[in-house]
Amino acid sequence: MTRYLIALRRSFVLAGLAIVGLLPLLGTLVALVFICSGVLIWFAPPVVEWCRRYVNRMRHVATELTGVELPAPYRAEPPEPEREADGWYRDGNSLYRKPKWVWVNRRIEWVFEDPATFRDGMWLVLNPVVGLLLPLVTVFAGPIAVRSYGRWLHGRLSRTPTFQGLRWLNKHGEAFGHLMGFLAVSTLQFLFGLCVLCTIITPIGAGTTVAYRKFVNMLRDATSKWSGVEIEVPYLPEPRFPVARPDGLYQLGKQLYESPWWPALVNRMVWVQRDRATWRDLAAGVLIPLVSLAALVLPFGFVAAAWWPPFDPDFPVWARIVLPFVLTGIGFACSPPWLARAVARFARLLLGPTEASRLALRVERLERTRTDASAAQAAELRRIERDLHDGVQSRLVAMGMKLGALEALIDRDPEKAKEMAAELRRNSSDTLTELRDLVRGVHPPVLTERGLGDAVRALALDSPLRVEVSVDLPGRIEPPVEACAYFAVSELLGNAVKHGQAERATVSLGFERGRLVVVVTDSGRGGANPVRGSGLRGIERRLGAFDGKLTVDSPPGGPTAVTLEIPCQLEPSSPKTSTCSETD
């Protein structure tokens, strides 16, 4: 009896904490509004961190009351901004005099790209309902209900949910929360879209539209996390900044301007107004809330009816207790996971790219990568020319002069001539070694003779890391793609040592759907970003020549996983390669 009373008391404490949890839920929504509207954006990270402190406090209290361990799964905090040598603070391609904005941007990425933030938000939505049910369930189940609640918390707040007793409730409760999330975010999109519609033909229209697109991209990311439905970004690339004519003026149509700012502004206005994705986003802001509301009519109706103040007084007491559970269960049953995915697919129809936008993006990317490839090729030729001129050519000129001196010494001083001949032999050997290193930098011989798999293994042997190489290729890849992947892996392993301070790394080579897929993972400190890293940008330019794709997943604290996808073809009559090796 004592255990039963203790469990009942603890259930009321946990129910009270669930009600208090509405405050951090409101704080999370306020932080989302701050970020979406751009107003008081620096308050968003502290608000989310305050919500995290509440959830962590809830973890400690729930661990003590339920006996179920609830570890904190958050990513490590981002490092503090560091001043560059020129006195500026850099964040991507932007420079700041003070570290405040860099700190704000990094912490916003940290809190909102962490999956634990999403789990906390879903728990804050569901916990008031489950917490209020807990005392009623404890009346019948006793201590079992409290411990089951603790295991439910573990499933909601941990990296790997382990509680399976209420798996059906978890899945349908998540779907109900996703539908509520779609409705809330799309309603904000509708309100934001009204502001864009009122300003789109004004000079500030381009700025408001770009801000609106950032918000819609958040909806795209949320759709991917909630339902697994990926929505690509469909926007046409931004127009280039105007370039001056030979006479120093800037042309816009038939008009010339002394300053580039008005042509740049007009180009951006035309860019956002002629892009069909702008109008599709505005249409989505109207239609997605309606579809989400239609999907929520039955679930929300039953859940609201379950807790509407009181039922008919003629109902017996047991019916007043049981009926809310029954109606809540029916409400969750009316929100299956497939319904949330259906709403997400509808959103993809409006927010995803059309074939015309895909073609335009592809043309723009090919033009940009062609320019980058030409510039990289010219730079590489200049490097080879410089190395030949300053290195091998100088050695050969010196050897030629010494050969002339050797001819004069043969008759007069044979011993001195022998010493000079030996020195010339050493110089020729050094020159040959330098020439081989130069050729190896252009195209490694092992890549030509043994293929990409063995070349990467040789690269791993030379690396100071403990590298595990896994190769599963159906044959030899076309040589240009092999060279591209080889130098990309070399750069990534070098970055892992130099910047990531890693100790171990894995390299996986595979071939899927006509693409060479290379995955390089290291145990470093993370934080890699293609925008901030010149090495990663160089890899992107190298891949761009082959219409390849670079994906970086590098949370602060690590690990870092970089995926390269390069369209390619197999060489005819090449044997399949499938091996795995580790180097120490």
TrEMBL record:
Reaction it catalyzes: ATP + protein L-histidine = ADP + protein N-phospho-L-histidine
InterPro entries hit by this protein: HATPase_C_sf, HATPase_dom, Sensor_HK_TwoCompSys, Sig_transdc_His_kin_sub3_dim/P
EC annotation from Swiss-Prot or TrEMBL: 2.7.13.3
Domain of life: Bacteria
Keyword Transmembrane among record annotations: yes
Keywords associated with the record: ATP-binding, Kinase, Membrane, Nucleotide-binding, Phosphoprotein, Transferase, Transmembrane, Transmembrane helix, Two-component regulatory system
Residue stretches making up the Histidine kinase/HSP90-like ATPase domain: 488-568
One of the record's GO cellular component terms: membrane
UniProt domain Signal transduction histidine kinase subgroup 3 dimerisation and phosphoacceptor: residue ranges: 380-447
Coiled-coil regions, chain positions: none
UniProt name for this protein: histidine kinase
UniProt source species: Amycolatopsis xylanica
